[in-house]
Write a structure and sequence with these properties.
With 261 residues, the protein is of the alpha+beta class. It folds into two domains: 96 residues, 2-Layer Sandwich (Phosphorylase Kinase, domain 1); 151 residues, Transferase(Phosphotransferase) domain 1 (Transferase(Phosphotransferase), domain 1, Orthogonal Bundle), CATH 1.10.510. It is built from eight helices and ten strands. The strands form three sheets. A five-stranded antiparallel sheet has the order 1-2-3-5-4, with helices on both faces. Strand 1 and strand 2 form a beta hairpin. The protein is globular, with a radius of gyration of 20 Å. It binds adenosine-5'-triphosphate (ATP). The site of adenosine-5'-triphosphate (ATP) has 19 residues, from strand 1, strand 2, strand 3 and strand 5. One of its GO terms (cellular component) is cytoplasm. GO terms for molecular function: ATP binding; protein serine/threonine kinase activity; protein tyrosine kinase activity. Pfam families: Pkinase (PF00069). This is Serine/threonine protein kinase.
């Protein structure tokens, strides 16, 4: 109860701060995550939209989370490419750290699939995965692994794909052995992002799937994919020999099934 009141009070403080002390106007709250809260702002002069992300007040006394929050800002600054939000400014408001970044005006794949009911063919799914891997390669080249490439964190608009939420990202650890991975989701190398890309691809493919029987089967049985595509996804998911790096994953996309443009 006290925590809820504290958050509510802080929410008003942020609103007032934005309206009275910055060049932005407050538009709305975008969402509350486990570590932070995101607000949509508009810059009064340019009319451009931005996102203010701040730490939740209940985490204020956790030193480790302050470091993670600071690391998230540093990583966004280090990546600095058009399809990843740039940090506009950062600060603290009553000891609560926040930063303001570009707003990605696009649709998440979660919205596309589950809200709008969009479907993706095999060719389209592989084409989108190819574009995602190209973006992921750029991030890995900067020494960073995202570790949370889920459908709510990948957006699409007329400029292509965008990745948000570097809250779980880590610096790549070059000393990890590819063949000794226990938890592919958390590992601090390319394996983690490729594992999530494998799941992302399965979400795209399942958008086109209509169950014909009650019994749930494995994705390999349900999706009826060509063997080359099954092999490819199994390698992404580390169910068989994982890719040595992200470029190898990109070059191994089964091109026979890619959309002809
Ligand atoms: N730069 C951005 N552009 C557009 N939308 C954004 C941006 N950053 C965050 N959002 C949106 O704001 C909401 C909250 O994002 P945030 O990253 O704070 O938390 P979360 O992803 O919900 O939770 P968690 O990080 O704990 O998994 C999400 O709906 C996300 O899509």
């Amino acid at each position: 109860m006290w925590g809820f009141m504290k958050e509510k009070k802080y929410h008003h403080l942020v609103r007032n701060y934005i309206e009275q002390k910055t060049d932005f106007h407050f538009i709305k709250e975008l969402g509350v995550g486990s570590y932070g809260v995101a607000y949509l702002l508009i810059h009064s002069k340019s009319g451009n939209q931005y996102v203010l992300k701040r730490m939740k007040t209940k985490h204020l006394c956790k030193k480790r989370l302050h470091e993670k929050f600071q690391q998230e800002i540093s990583m966004l600054n280090e990546i600095s490419i058009p399809n990843i939000p740039s940090v506009y400014t950062q600060g603290k408001l009553q000891d609560v750290p926040f930063y303001i970044m570009d707003f990605v005006d696009g649709k998440t794949f979660e919205q596309a699939i589950f809200k709008d009911g969009e479907t993706f063919t095999l060719a389209q799914s592989l084409e989108i995965t190819k574009q995602l891997l190209e973006l992921v390669i750029t991030i890995h080249e900067k020494g960073i692994v995202h570790r949370d490439l889920r459908i709510p964190n990948i957006l699409i608009n007329e400029d292509g794909l965008h990745i948000i939420d570097f809250g779980l990202a880590a610096y790549l650890n070059p000393n990890l052995k590819v063949d000794k991975i226990n938890n592919p989701k958390k590992v601090e190398n390319h394996i983690s992002d490729l594992y999530f890309v494998g799941h992302f691809l399965l979400f795209l493919l399942y958008s086109n799937f209509t169950p014909t029987e009650r019994k749930e089967r494995s994705w390999q049985e349900e999706l009826q994919l060509p063997i080359g595509v099954i092999d490819y996804i199994e390698r992404l998911l580390t169910l068989r020999s994982p890719f040595s790096n992200t470029k190898e994953a990109l070059n191994s996309i089964p091109t026979d099934f890619l959309k002809k443009t």
